[in-house]
Amino acid sequence: MRSFPVTPDHDVTDIDLMRALQEGSEAALCELIARWEKRLLSFVYRYTQDTHTTQDIVQETFVRLHLKREQFKPDRGFSPWLFTIAANLCHNRARWQRRHPEQSWDDTSGTTVESPTNLLADPTDGPVETTIRREQIEELKSLVLALPHDLKTAVLLHHYEGLSSAEIAQVVGCSLRGVETRIYRGLKKIRAASRFA
User: Fold this and answer.
1) CA 98, CA 96: separation in Å to the nearest integer?
2) Strand, helix or coil at 12?
3) Does residue 54 form part of some domain?
């Protein structure tokens, strides 16, 4: 088993970490979690709009990463592989919730968890501007949440996670042209439904 430094090393790539993980390094898994947890929380929260669900899906994403580590192919790239796992889990959870609208996936026991997104208003805004901004944010969240899985995933990965069209194509399993079409259609639906467009 290859030894791996416990302290973060920015010269070590995600692919190096995956190779170390495949060789049995638990420190490599810890480093991958440290590097990617925040981005996954951001993506999954924007997809689900639910903090408890987000935490569950991100945790499950890292469990799957560990369980499927032998299936990782370096030539595919790490971020598309990781976001594919997360997007599939989001989609599975959304389908389950559509079929069971009256049931919770997990028992949250009445606990409330704060949103991981910190949406701060401009301190120079007055009460009217702050209210309008808050309404715009809430409307955008609900419009994104209402998009079909394929459009939602492409829009979130492009606009919020900064993945390239080629990386998104790997995540969603379509051509580059298909990615561009999904992003365009998603944004068009949002603009058409928005009161603030």
Assistant:
1) 5
2) coil
3) yes
127-146 and 26-48 helices, crossing angle to 10°:
100
- In a shared domain, residues 2 and 78: yes
Task: Select from 76, 108, 140 the last residue of a domain.
Answer: 108
Residue 104 sits in the same domain as residue 139: no
Reported as a single tens digit per residue, the pLDDT across 76-127 is 899 999 999 999 999 999 888 778 666 554 444 343 333 333 334 455 667 7
Rounded CA-CA distance 56/92 in Å is 13
Buried b (16+ CB within 10 A) or exposed e, 147-180: bebbbbbbbbbbeebebebebbbbbbebeeebbb
Are residue 103 and residue 21 in the same domain, yes or no? Answer: yes
pLDDT in tens, 25-56: 999 999 999 999 999 999 999 999 899 999 99
Domain count, the chain: 2
Give the domain range for residue 92. 1-108
